[in-house]
Each structure stands twice: as C-alpha cells, then as structure tokens.
Amino acid sequence: MNQQSSDAGRVQDVIVVGGGPAGLASAIAAHKAGLACEVIERGALVNSLLRFPTNMVFLTTPERLEIGGLPFVTPYAKPTRDEALRYYRRAADTYNLNLQFGLEVRAIRREAGPDGAPLLAVETRHADDGPSRRLARTVVVAIGAYERPNMLGVPGEDLPHVAHYYTEAHPYYRKHVVIVGGKNSAAETALELFRAGAHVTLVHRRAELGSGIKYWVRPDIENRIKEGSVIAHFETRVVEIRPTEVVVEHAGVQRVLPADAVFLLTGYHPDTAMLARFGIEVDAETMVPAHDPDTYETNVPNLFLAGQVISGIHSGLIFIENGRFHGEMVIKVIARRLAAGRDAVPTTANTLG
After folding, report:
1. Superfamily of the domain at 151-264
2. Under CATH, which number does the domain 4-147+268-340 receive?
3. pLDDT digits (tens, 9 = 90+) for 60-115
4. Closest CA to 138 of 237, 57, 37, 211
5. Do residues 105 and 275 make contact, with C-beta atoms less than 8 angstroms apart?
6. Model pTM?
C-alpha cells in the first residue's frame, strides 16, 4: 500500500529508485543498518520478472537469487519464475519494506536542507495523484536494464504483432513466427514455440548462435535447426517488418519471410534518458553511467547505482546473482557517511566503470 502523503513530507536516509532484486537488496540492507528507507517503483514489485516467459526456469540455483539472508526454499534444483515472484514478495513482507508503487521519478536535484545540510530532492509523478516531491540524504538508483529494448530501427518495428518480450507459446499455435536474435532468450523461445505447434524462423545477424546459451539448450536448438524443425537464417539482418511478413537480407540478397508474429529478442539497455534527468553522466557509446567502481557513487554526490543499470549496453554482464550484492556494498558506504554526519565528496575520481 502506498503511503505517498505521509512519506512525501519527511526526509529519508535513503530513497531507492527501482523495486527489482537489486533495489530490494538495497532497501533490506538499509533496514538492517537502521536507516529510514523508501523504495519508489513505477511498475509492480520486481517488474522486470513479469516480462520473463511465464514458464521460465532460472539457469541458476535458488540460493544465488537470495537477498537479505532470507532462504529461497524450493523443491527444484532450479527455481521457476513463479517461485521467484513469490520469494521476492515474501522478502518485502518479511522486512516490512516501505514500497511506493505507480510513481515515476522525473528528476533528482541537489538542494540545501533546513539545517543547511545537502539533500537530494526526488521529484515524482503518479498517474492518478499527480506530482509529488520527496527529500533524502542519499539515493540509490536500481532501475535495471530490462525496460528499454534495443531497437532495430527498421520500418514496421512498431506494428502491433511485433514484441520485444516473449511470454507464452499457446497463442501462436500453427502460426508463422519470426524470432530475431541468437542468444539464450531467442533459442529458448524458438524451442518453446516449435513444441507448441508454431512454424518458427530464427534470424540472426551473426554466423552462429551466441556462446552464452545454456548448455542443455544449445544441443536442442542446434538439432532442431539441423533437422529443419526450426528454420534459421544466419548472417542475416531485418530490413523491414510488414503486417504479415518480414523482409530480410543476406549477402546483399533480400527475401520475404511469412510472419503472423515477430519477436525482436535483441537485448536491452538502461533508461539513459532517466539517468540524464538525474544529472548522471552516461557514456554515449557504452551507455555506462559514470560511477566510482569501488563505491558505486555517480558523478552526483550521494547518488549511487546498484544492479544491472551499471552495465550499459552489456546488460548480460550483471544478473540477479551478482547485482544483488551491490546494494549491500552501497549501503555500507552510505551508513558510514551518515554516521559521520557529513556530505563527503568521493576522494577517488569518478570513472566510467
């Protein structure tokens, strides 16, 4: 339940922007450190997980998804998406986290508090309640990198039958589906759609499938391609998407593929426009936000990062398994700083980590 009216008027020790695993880990660490903390999320709890395939099984084991020292109990060697959603709800309830949903953070600005101490003003907007403003001594930005898909920049990419996220296979029974991409998500989607009776074509701009495909998925997709159950076009790029077909090009020659549905599984990147509104410098080429690699503090003093947002275009380098530790590290820095009662500007020069 939101507490917008009451929390908007108090100064928090920490405001966490983003209610994903890294944001929740940050908030739990703040709770354990005795810091007043509020989490602001524009969607649902662990919103990115809602975009995962409905029947997805994690590659990792459950203990590597744990946050706050709370055990992830499951009868399976590898947990499911539904179990993960249930676990993170339980984590939020166990630590009674102060969660505010439906709030989009529009800006973060530095200003002086009533006692002259520097604060960060977090400006938000709610779809129903309009704008509001919160004050915090520190802010942790943990917005992930799964909300902004990498666009192809081709005509027809915005057509209604084109999606950047895959959920389930049943609606595509006996339909022609084109999947663009060659990494794990594309391979798993192709296999699930094929087994649900879809006619699947895989289009990948490189000469072979990505090296990071799960070890038990790779032989499966390679064998389906060899036997022709999944049609694959390598070293091929999409030129145009039309209502019932996709135009692709290989070695300068174009061809038309039938397509009732198109999944562009080409990766994701952080919301750099949001980071810019916060005053965070972002490398134009890598999309990596400026931060100290030891403290995760950005070029804006007392404004920190946690989780996948740090990785820029290389979002595959940071997962829940390693991003969950960022919050604990950041909160240690924040707790020491607040205990010292000073606004310490980092002595180490901020770098593009």
Report:
1. FAD/NAD(P)-binding domain (3.50.50.60)
2. 3.50.50.60
3. 889 989 999 999 999 988 899 999 999 999 999 999 999 999 999 999 999 988 77
4. 37
5. no
6. 0.87
